[in-house]
Amino acid sequence: MADYHFVYKDLEGSSTQWDDIQRKLGNLPPKPPPFKPPAFMPAEDEESKPKDKDWIDKKTEEELEDLEDDLDEDRFLEEYRKKRLTEMREASKVAKFGSVIPISGSDFVREVSQAPQEIWVVVMLYKDGYPECRMLLQCLEDLAKRYPATKFVKIISTECIPNYPDRNLPTILVYKNSAVKATYVGMQSFGRRCTPEGVALVLCQSDPVLNDGHNGEQSGEVVLDGIRKKFLERVVKESEEDNDGSSSD
Questions:
Q1: Rounded Cα distance, 149 and 119, in Å
Q2: 6 in any annotated domain
Q3: Which domain does 215 fall in, by range?
Q4: I want to staple 227 with a disulfide (CB 3.0 to 4.6 A). Which of 110, 162, 184, 200 is the partner?
């Protein structure tokens, strides 16, 4: 015999007139709201985002050249792209060194005397086993990283000048355009406390020897201002470290 007992289920969200009356009388709970799927939101396209100069600053020279067709409609970004390309190409023309280069006597003429006319060359005469030489070399390594457009080299003293007295070590010779512009003999030339900033101030006291390569040829006063700023930053940092150490005790 067929089973005629079944439950009729309305479409979701629908209601009968009887149910509506019962809800008004409080005999049934309120009707649940009909289900609504969330509005469709397409995934964000990185290429469709508005472009600004920060976006361009992160691009390499090759990527900037590839953008030429895409940026034709945006005059500001196109002009800025051209400016960035010019800056990057000019910066690439500047000689970059970034470390103290060891040379021998046979290298001296090529590396120092025949260096390009616009390049300042700082030559350190040294010998292994001398604490003063090691201390000054550490300062020069720091400066070489900060000022990569200035060339720093080191050479064993007697390879540069035969029979050069050890008592004069370390010695610094500053060259430009094949000529010696300054000479500093012994650690006393750099003060009681030898720091990269102190050495930098001595090197630049008469000429803008140090060059970071970012702003072309700089005046001596501009270079000195930058060195003084670095000196103050070091003093503040050391003071903060001393205070942290004393407070932890």
A1: 7
A2: no
A3: 101-239
A4: 200
Model confidence over 74-93: pLDDT tens digits?
Answer: 565 666 667 766 666 655 55
pTM over 0.70: no
How far apart CA 54 and CA 31 sit, in angstroms, is 53
pLDDT at residue 185 in the model: 95
Residue in the structure block whose two tokens are 């029979």: 163
* Residue carrying the six token digits 């390049």: 119
CA distances to 82, 225, 226, 239, 247 from 244, in Å: 48, 29, 27, 9, 5
In a domain, 89, yes or no: no
Domain-embedded: residue 11 = no
**How far is the CA of 145 from the CAs of 23, 132, 217, in angstroms?**
81, 21, 18
pLDDT higher for 84 or 182?
A: 182
Q: How far apart are CA 84 and CA 59, in angstroms?
A: 9
* In-domain check, residue 116: yes
Q: How many structural domains are present in the chain?
A: 1
Mean of pLDDT values over 217-239: 61
Q: What is the CATH number of the domain that holds 198?
A: 3.40.30.10
Written as one letter, the residue type at 246 is S
> What is the structure's pLDDT at 29?
80
